[in-house]
Amino acid sequence: MLRYVIILLVLIGLAPIVPSLVEARLNSMDRQDHAEADEEVTSGPRKHRISVDRRGHYVADAYVNGRALDMLVDTGATVTALPKSVARDIGIFLSPSDFKHPIGTANGTVYGARAVIDKLRIGAIRFRNVDAIVLGDESLGVPLLGMSALSQLKRFDISSGTLVLVQ
Same structural domain for residues 95 and 137? Predict the structure, then answer.
């Protein structure tokens, strides 16, 4: 019985501060929503810079359908490409019968499955509904950011070891 009395006293003591805690949390969430909305409607172009890595590649820290992953920027790739395991991790689920599209690679022809990436973000750059091809993990080791995404940009420039994306 003493335990219930102690719990009741603690709850009575917390009751006056709970509304202010809830209000502070709601205000914080509201500010975050407004900040995200403001970011979408900024004046002027959004830019993101990617430095060349030691192998001479441009690797972007991307968020694909909310998941963080590294993507190799490949301006020679017509379509953004994902390994099957990465596609599964970001919520793209395919059946074996979906892999029916022949894709010419440096290692010959492989079969891929068409997919659409709902949301892709690199820094301040936002892509929506990006056409993609999913290949078996044995055919593609890393995700490639191809022209199906890059064509949504105003431009991209490479200068002095830096790739600049402008949207």
Answer: yes
Angstrom distance (rounded) from CA 36 to CA 32 = 6
Q: Do 64 and 140 belong together in one domain?
A: yes
Which residues constitute the domain of residue 17? 2-40
Q: Are 71 and 62 in contact (CB under 8 A)?
A: yes
Element (H, E) at 64: strand 59-64
Helices (H) and strands (E) in the chain, counts: 4, 10
Question: Other CB atoms closer than 10 Å to residue 72's CB: what's the count?
Answer: 18
The count of residues in the chain is 167
pLDDT digits (tens, 9 = 90+) for 16-42: 665 665 565 655 555 554 444 444 555
Q: Are residues 101 and 121 in the same domain?
A: yes
User: Could you tell me the pTM of the whole model?
Assistant: 0.72
Identify whether residues 29 and 57 lie together within a single domain. Answer: no
CA-nearest of 150, 146, 144 to 166 is 150
